[in-house]
């Protein structure tokens, strides 16, 4: 789904030149809605938002003709630190998302679909809004699309600054015009979601694969990647690499090769200290951990982490993990919606502990406290934000406990505390 | 808010029936675009117009970071301080700007020109460090670039 | 009917139930803060976490039953999690029980003791917030004590529908706040949130720092504020905890009023008028019998009344619809044949008072019109030139309507100018001084019990009517 970007490659003409809207025609005129779902399921496509939940399985919960409205929402809230690949799609290939959403709406009997885009995104929003306008003008939205019985409308809905609105039920609450409080399950959103109707929420990248899958078929999709991780993924790479950016990688690709060759290696020629593989809510892996690993779901699950959102943050040797952790705990504290007890108080608590440690007032008990807070946020909260905050800190503590102990004992970082690789000693 | 009503009517038509509550966020955003912030009277009027409880709008205004109920400076400078940006000099550049403008995050310069803020991840990690100036992203910042930018903001 | 297992016990559940509901029905206690039987499920406190075999821990209040599921409410994991939830709740909680009215009836206190809550593990300062927020002229909010269970906001959205409360900001700086033009003050059901608040965050100003709850006892009663007849609890000092005070009223006053849960009438709610009954019951009392304003012994006044009744040709009686079933029946039995009896409406809606709604409030602001009407019908009193005696029982009657030639026997509980003008005045007791029943507008009969002793010269109307029916001394 990636290609060399030009000034017009995001336009309808550009997309058509790349083979766009062929899949839509095929789906509407040659396939039944159930066939589309079958094809998506057969492809084994996994969600690209962070949970890697099989897209087809999610779709199958929706009963096609249950007599009530269904909704499809593309989750473009992209707030996971380290992640900016959905932004790439919105800025440079928005029609791929649009076409995919039309096909998905057809499969799921959706008359009104939405893109929920984080409020801070400006260019991505304008590009997407532009693509939607072009699509309407070309007759891809509205009544009786391409002369078939399928009608569909889309609304691009802007968020207003809340990471928790990236959680599917928090997103729905926000789309209902309220504060973004996630909801308990049951009921699943595919049973009762937006305004209590069956709703499918999929990540932008997940959905964008649909057009390709329908155009080329599930079998062709499965030929790429590994059996347990089919297809390609967009990775957002940032941190201490020389060539940060969005990369489309075939799943199963060797990790070190990716970092050394494609991403240009580490700034200042340093060694890799550790990598956050899939957004800060995934557990950190050391340079040693990833040496022989491939970039696939199963490889990371086996290593005790996850590909998550594909937001890869590369951290060079000499970086203070304690200072980094302070930033992470500040982030979760700021973004906690405050609804449920463990996360509301736990994120604040962890932040205050990290502030104290970094200020040179850490105590030996603090490490156990952090583990305690993480443990009782694991599986106890309404949504995954609490768990994620716990994974972030416990993952770093598991690998770098000695750094924390050093900081607490000596009241300063073992390194110089400067997170900038090129300027630290 | 009254002059925005025709716009809001058009917006309402884009949504399915029964989605009035959903109009809160886009309407608030539009009001803020016009006025620079959301006034108390806007809240009452919007609640009446959409038929939603006033408390819902008040909650939304205080929950989301992008909505404000007080005016700010002409140029809103928001610096991301999250991990990748910090790993590529965000703190250093922020300190530079603080010194140059003489304000700390959360404050506005006395001449009302700049309001300085910090933000969490804005989805620009690959082009870190970065800042938002009002709605726009400015990426791959250096101290020199920032100085040039600030010069150009009148 | 799916069969589930809780702590090894096989239980027949209903398909639409949650595990929490099933547990409650079978006497298995699972702790909770945010769940309430009359409010939507929010599942935010996480206190009701239970363990399900093969699935780990999840909240019970939102957990549908599945046939064969094995639930454990007291496993080691569950206990550890309860302690942790209590740790999180008390992390920023001021733990100022020493100055908090909720002490003694606080769910947080109770759970802390029951589930071995421990001292805080935190080495950091607590997050501070507003201690005395003026939520309304009736309710004080302490945001530090608040555990954000959202019972209060849900109440105003789902029950009283005033939409008055919400949450400002997010995370651990979230605060319950009222909508900005403060209609919580206009919500006639606002004080129910004080009852349902599981901690001491919401406090009634009326009751603020008046008494520790363990010095008080609740006596069941019925609110006389309207014909709904909500059952209530009148709280007053336990005899063994009477204060040694020169003012006897310290020990015979209403400390506070709360609902007495009643599925047939008011559920767990009452309106604010029911909370304010002290302003009705604690008005200055009439405490002695009088003849044309001259205090006399009761016996003398009784005698005078009997003579008037015996001599009257066309006596008219206006009975009080605040009379209890027993009193009204007694009037009928003993004096019903003697008087042309009409039902008087003692109270009218006051200015600004809500007349009616579809929750509890009814337009007739009297407790026993139903019984009175049943016994005496509904027609206006008919006076004529021959009317020579009018017996007025209770309040609210315009004495200017009484023909000037008629003698007046007045039975009243409260000090009023008319008391002194009546030919015979007898002081009668109020409902807090005796037992009795009211019949509400739907025919539901509810009981009230006495809380306070009555004055020496104050009579129970029931007894009084029988006494009045006896022939006067010296008359056949």
Provide structural commentary.
The complex is a heterotrimer of chains A (425), B (154) and C (476). Chain A has 425 residues and is an alpha/beta fold. Chain A has helices spanning 12-17, 22-30, 33-43, 55-60, 85-92, 94-108, 123-137, 168-175, 204-216, 218-222, 255-262, 287-290, 297-302, 321-335, 341-358, 365-375, 384-410; strands at residues 70-76, 110-117, 153-158, 199-203, 232-239, 245-250, 253-254, 272-276, 285-286, 294-295, 311-316. Chain A starts with 11 loop residues before the first helix and ends in a 15-residue tail after the last helix. The model of chain A has no long low-confidence stretch (mean pLDDT 96). By secondary structure, chain B is α+β, with helices and mostly antiparallel strands. Chain B has helices spanning 5-14, 24-35, 40-50, 54-63, 83-86, 90-101, 143-152; strands at 75-80, 114-119, 131-133, 136-138. The two termini of chain B are 28 Å apart. The relative contact order of chain B is 0.12. In chain C, 21% of the residues lie in helices and 19% in strands. Chain C has helices spanning 19-25, 76-91, 107-114, 151-159, 192-196, 272-275, 278-281, 298-311, 325-335, 369-376, 417-421, 461-469; strands spanning 3-6, 9-12, 49-52, 56-59, 70-72, 133-134, 139-141, 165-168, 175-178, 202-204, 216-222, 231-237, 256-259, 290-291, 294-295, 315-320, 340-344, 389-393, 407-412, 424-427, 436-439, 445-448. In chain C, helix 9 (325-335) runs parallel beside helix 10. Chains in contact: A-B, A-C, B-C. The interface between A and B is large, with 60 and 47 residues.
Structural class determined from secondary elements of chain B: alpha+beta
Going by helix content, strand content and strand pairing, the class of chain C is alpha+beta
Number of strands of chain C: 22
Task: Give the fraction of residues assigned to helices of chain C.
Answer: 10-25%
Topology of this protein?
The complex is a heterotrimer of chains A (425), B (154) and C (476).
Chain A lengths: L11 H6 L4 H9 L2 H11 L11 H6 L9 E7 L8 H8 L1 H15 L1 E8 L5 H15 L15 E6 L9 H8 L23 E5 H13 L1 H5 L9 E8 L5 E6 L2 E2 H8 L9 E5 L8 E2 H4 L3 E2 L1 H6 L8 E6 L4 H15 L5 H18 L6 H11 L8 H27 L15
Parallel strand pairs in A: 1-2, 1-4, 2-3, 5-11
Antiparallel strand pairs in A: 5-6, 7-10, 8-9, 8-11
Helix pairs in contact in A: 2-6, 2-9, 3-6, 5-6, 5-7, 6-9, 14-15, 14-17, 15-16, 15-17, 16-17
Chain B lengths: L4 H10 L9 H12 L4 H11 L3 H10 L11 E6 L2 H4 L3 H12 L12 E6 L11 E3 L2 E3 L4 H10 L2
Parallel strand pairs in B: 1-2
Antiparallel strand pairs in B: 1-3, 3-4
Helix pairs in contact in B: 2-3, 3-4
Chain C lengths: L2 E4 L2 E4 L6 H7 L23 E4 L3 E4 L10 E3 L3 H16 L15 H8 L18 E2 L4 E3 L9 H9 L5 E4 L6 E4 L13 H5 L5 E3 L11 E7 L8 E7 L18 E4 L12 H4 L2 H4 L8 E2 L2 E2 L2 H14 L3 E6 L4 H11 L4 E5 L24 H8 L12 E5 L13 E6 L4 H5 L2 E4 L8 E4 L5 E4 L12 H9 L7
Parallel strand pairs in C: 1-5, 16-17, 16-18, 18-19, 19-20
Antiparallel strand pairs in C: 1-2, 3-4, 3-5, 6-7, 7-10, 8-9, 11-12, 12-13, 14-15, 14-20, 21-22
Helix pairs in contact in C: 8-12, 9-10, 9-12
């Amino acid at each position: 789904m990636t290609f060399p970007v030009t000034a017009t490659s995001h336009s309808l003409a550009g997309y058509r030149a790349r083979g766009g809207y062929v899949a839509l025609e095929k789906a509407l005129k040659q396939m039944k809605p159930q066939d589309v779902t079958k094809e998506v399921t057969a492809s084994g496509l996994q969600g690209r938002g962070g949970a890697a939940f099989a897209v087809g399985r999610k779709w199958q919960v929706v009963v096609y003709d249950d007599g009530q409205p269904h909704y499809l929402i593309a989750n473009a809230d992209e707030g996971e630190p380290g992640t900016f690949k959905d932004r790439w799609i919105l800025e440079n290939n928005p029609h791929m998302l649009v076409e995919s959403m039309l096909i998905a709406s057809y499969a799921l009997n959706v008359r009104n679909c939405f893109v929920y885009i984080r409020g801070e995104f400006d260019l991505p929003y304008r590009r997407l809004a532009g693509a939607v306008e072009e699509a309407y003008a070309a007759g891809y939205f509205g009544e009786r699309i391409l002369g078939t019985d399928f009608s569909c409308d889309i609304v691009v809905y802007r968020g207003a600054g809340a990471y928790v609105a990236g959680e599917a039920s928090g997103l729905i609450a926000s789309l209902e015009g309220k504060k973004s409080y996630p909801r308990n399950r049951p009921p699943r959103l595919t049973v009762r979601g937006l305004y209590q109707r069956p709703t499918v929420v999929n990540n932008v990248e997940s959905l964008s694969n649909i057009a390709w899958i329908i155009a080329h078929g599930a079998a062709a999709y499965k030929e790429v990647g590994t059996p347990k991780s089919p297809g390609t993924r967009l990775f957002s790479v940032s941190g201490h690499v020389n060539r940060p950016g969005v990369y489309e990688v075939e799943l199963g690709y060797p990790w070190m090769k990716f970092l050394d060759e494609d991403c240009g290696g580490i700034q200042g020629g340093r060694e890799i200290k550790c990598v956050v593989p899939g957004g800060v809510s995934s557990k950190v892996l050391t340079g040693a951990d990833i040496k022989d690993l491939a970039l696939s779901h199963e490889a990371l699950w086996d290593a005790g982490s996850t590909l998550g959102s594909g937001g890869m943050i590369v951290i060079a040797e000499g970086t203070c993990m304690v200072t980094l952790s302070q930033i992470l705990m500040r982030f979760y504290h700021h973004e906690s919606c405050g609804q449920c007890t463990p996360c509301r108080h736990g994120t604040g608590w962890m932040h205050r502990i990290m502030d104290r440690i970094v200020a040179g007032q850490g105590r030996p008990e603090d490490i156990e406290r952090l583990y305690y807070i993480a443990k009782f946020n694991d599986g106890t909260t309404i949504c995954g934000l609490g768990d994620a905050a716990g994974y972030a800190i416990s993952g770093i503590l598991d690998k770098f406990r000695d750094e924390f102990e050093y900081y607490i004992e000596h009241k300063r970082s073992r390194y110089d505390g400067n997170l900038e690789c090129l300027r630290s000693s | 808010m009254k002059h925005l009503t025709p716009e809001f009517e058009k917006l309402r038509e884009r949504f399915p029936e029964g989605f009035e509550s959903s109009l809160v966020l886009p309407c608030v955003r539009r009001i803020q675009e016009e006025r620079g912030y959301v006034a108390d009277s806007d809240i009452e009027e919007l609640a009446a117009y959409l038929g939603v409880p006033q408390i819902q709008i008040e909650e939304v205004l205080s929950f989301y970071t992008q909505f404000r109920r007080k005016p700010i400076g002409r140029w809103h400078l928001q610096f991301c301080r999250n991990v990748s940006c910090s790993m590529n000099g965000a703190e250093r550049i922020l300190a530079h700007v603080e010194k140059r403008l003489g304000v700390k995050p959360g404050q506005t310069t006395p001449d009302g020109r700049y309001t300085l803020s910090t933000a969490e991840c804005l989805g620009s990690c690959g082009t870190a460090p970065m800042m938002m100036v009002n709605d726009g992203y400015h990426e791959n910042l250096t101290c020199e670039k920032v100085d040039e930018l600030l010069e150009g903001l009148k | 009917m799916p069969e589930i297992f809780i702590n090894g016990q096989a239980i027949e559940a209903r398909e639409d139930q949650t595990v929490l509901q099933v547990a409650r029905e079978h006497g298995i206690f699972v702790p909770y803060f945010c769940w309430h039987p009359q409010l939507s499920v929010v599942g935010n406190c996480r206190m009701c976490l239970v363990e399900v075999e093969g699935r780990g821990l999840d909240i019970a209040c939102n957990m549908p039953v599945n046939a064969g599921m094995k639930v454990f409410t007291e496993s080691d994991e569950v206990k550890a999690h309860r302690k942790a939830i209590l740790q999180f709740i008390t992390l920023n909680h001021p733990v100022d029980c020493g100055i908090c009215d909720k002490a003694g009836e606080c769910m947080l206190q109770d759970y802390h003791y029951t589930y071995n809550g421990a001292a805080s593990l935190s080495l950091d300062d607590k997050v501070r917030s507003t201690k005395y927020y003026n939520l309304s002229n009736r309710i004080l909010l302490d945001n530090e004590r608040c555990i954000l269970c959202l019972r209060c906001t849900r109440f105003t959205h789902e029950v009283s529908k005033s939409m008055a409360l919400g949450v400002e900001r997010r995370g651990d700086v979230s605060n319950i706040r009222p909508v900005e033009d403060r209609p919580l003050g206009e919500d006639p059901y606002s004080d129910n949130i004080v009852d349902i608040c599981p901690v001491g965050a919401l406090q009634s100003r009326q009751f603020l720092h008046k008494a520790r709850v363990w010095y008080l006892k609740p006596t069941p009663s019925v609110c006389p504020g309207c014909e709904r007849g909500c059952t209530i609890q009148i709280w007053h000092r336990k005899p063994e905890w009477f204060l040694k005070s020169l003012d006897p009223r310290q020990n015979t006053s209403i400390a506070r009023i709360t609902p007495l849960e009643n599925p047939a009438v008011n559920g767990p709610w009452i309106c604010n008028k029911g909370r304010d009954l002290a302003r009705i019951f604690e008005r200055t009392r009439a405490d002695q019998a009088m003849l044309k304003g001259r205090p006399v012994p009761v016996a003398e006044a009784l005698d005078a009344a009997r003579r008037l009744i015996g001599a009257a040709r066309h006596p008219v009686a206006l009975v009080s619809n605040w009379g209890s079933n027993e009193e009204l029946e007694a009037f009928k039995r003993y004096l019903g044949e003697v008087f042309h009896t009409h039902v008087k409406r003692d109270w009218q809606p006051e200015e600004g008072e809500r007349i009616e709604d579809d929750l509890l409030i009814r337009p007739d602001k009297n407790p026993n019109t139903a019984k009175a009407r049943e016994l005496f019908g509904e027609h206006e009193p008919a006076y004529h030139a021959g009317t020579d005696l009018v017996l007025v029982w209770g309040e609210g009657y315009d004495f200017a309507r009484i023909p000037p030639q008629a003698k007046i026997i007045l039975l009243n509980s409260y000090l009023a100018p008319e008391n002194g003008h009546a030919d015979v005045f007898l002081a009668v007791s109020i409902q807090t001084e005796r037992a009795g029943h009211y019949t509400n507008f739907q025919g539901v009969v509810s009981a009230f019990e006495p809380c306070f002793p009555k004055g020496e010269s104050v009579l129970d109307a029931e007894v009084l009517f029988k006494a009045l029916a006896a022939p006067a001394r010296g008359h056949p």
